Amino acid sequence: MSRMSTDEVVDRLTADLRPVKRTISPILGAALWITASMAFIGALIWHHGMRPDIGKLLGDTGYGTLFAACVATAALGALATFTVSLPDRTVRWALLPIPGLVLWLGGTGIGCYSDWVRAGPDGLVLGTSFSCMGWITAVSLPPVALLIVMIRHAAFVRPRLALCLGMLSTAALASAGLMLIHEIDATLMIFVWHTSAAVILIGLAAFGAPIFRRLAGR
Amino acid sequence: MRYEGGRSGGELNWSDLADLMARVQTGDREAYRILLDRLIPWLRRVAGRKLTRIEDVEDTIQEVLVSLHAIRHTYDPKRPFQPWVMTLAQRRIADRMRKNYRVMNHELPLPADFSETGPAAVANDGMTPAVDLEPAALTRAMTCLSPRQRQAVELLRLQEMSLKEAAAVSGRTEASLKVAMHRALASLRRAFGVS
Fold first, then answer.
1. Cα–Cα distance between A120 and B29 in angstroms, integer?
2. What's residue B113's pLDDT?
3. Do B69 and A218 count as a contact with CB atoms less than 8 A apart?
4. So what's the pLDDT on residue B2?
5. What is the per-residue pLDDT across B20-35, written as a single tens digit (0 to 9) for each?
6. Contact call for A87 and B66, based on CB within 8 A
7. Do A193 and A137 meet the contact criterion of CB atoms below 8 Å apart?
8. What single DSSP character describes residue B53?
9. What is the distance between the alpha carbons of residues B1 and B93, in angstroms, rounded to a whole number?
10. A17–B29: do the CB atoms touch at under 8 Å?
11. Which residue is closest to B75 within chain A, CA to CA?
12. Looking at residue A177, what is its pLDDT?
């Protein structure tokens, strides 16, 4: 098999050159993706119907903090995803969702404590809720597919990191959506099943980097 | 052949290159050729600091150029050009180093004089017909190997395991398997009359 010389590669690339449209800024990209994903999840919530006591719950400190944490993680995670997908941005942007995550974990700790204070050890019930994991996984797929299309150039730069951040953002958004419809009041259950789904999805993203590269033509 | 890389020197005018890249995005082929011709020596120096073989350096340069071409739309002319292209170079160098590490663990280098068909090198000169390796001849040759050499051939070549996997399966060290494999190849060369 004959190898091409570097000069031949230059000739081919030069001959193949076409004008391109510059990619949108990370902020705009993240905003567009969040809007589209929220529209999709919102449509599902509208179809299912919100839980009847949602107004009261969001006024509750623990529940409201968790919900805000999910939304913050989703938004900051999306911005981090679009930013690290560009070669000239520092990889430290990946730390951006950390405050949201800290709020999520901290909010869960407060929620679990409140449940324990209110109802003793029975307040920390951990029932199974595979439907939670299934909902988060299924709802995450279309937003993730859209994200892969929007950041496919990341396959040449930081495929694994971009995918993991994107999956974190998606899972957080799906989790926030689920909190609006699913009638589970036990914070520990929400934490375990929602974060389990997020961890599984992020793990899949980490292993999916080779497929991502192939889809992007690398 | 070892590639002797040098310091980057910073001779490039990155502001000029940024302007060229902006023109490349509009489809300016002349600007593209100038840009690539200026980048290639710099890329050789950058890659040469981490990669020792000239083939690896040239392959990596080509991969950087292909990456640059594929995602040229992501460069923002309002931002510096050097970090943009440096990241691409670093990623492709890291990919090459990972690939070399995998190859090193999965394959053993054959001596340069090892002919393709096993029998005498003259069989490969195109003038005489090649001699096929008959399964019976190979089986006979394998029986001349010691049990440890035979095991190394079976695991590393016939079952195509990596050194790590073969070491785990056989309970032997990777160094021991390498030595056995080299000795087995030497025995097989003698068995087929290869000098």
1. 73
2. 56
3. no
4. 38
5. 999 999 999 999 999 9
6. no
7. no
8. B
9. 18
10. yes
11. A22
12. 84
Q: B130-176: per-residue pLDDT in tens?
A: 444 556 666 667 777 888 888 888 888 877 788 878 887 787 888 88
CA–CA distance, B133 with B189 (Å, rounded to integer) = 12
Torsion-angle region of residue B5: left (phi > 0), alpha (psi -120 to 50) or beta? beta
Contacts of B75 in chain A (CB under 8 A): 22, 88
Full-model pTM:
0.71
Confidence label for B128 from pLDDT (cuts 50, 70 and 90) = very low
ipTM of the complex as predicted: 0.81
Instruction: Spell out the residues 6+ positions from residue B151 whose beta carbon is closer than 8 angstroms to its own.
Output: B170, B180
CA A177 to chain centre: 12
Alpha helices (H) along chain B: 14-25, 29-48, 54-70, 82-106, 135-143, 147-153, 163-170, 174-191
Closest listed residue to residue A197, CA positions, set A125, A144, A118, A123: A144
Q: Kindly give, in sequence order, each residue whose CB lies less than 8 Å from that of residue A101, ignoring residues fewer than 6 positions away.
A: A69, A73
Specify the pLDDT at position B22.
Answer: 97
Q: From residue B188, how far is each of A81, A82, B133 by CA, in Å?
A: 55, 56, 12
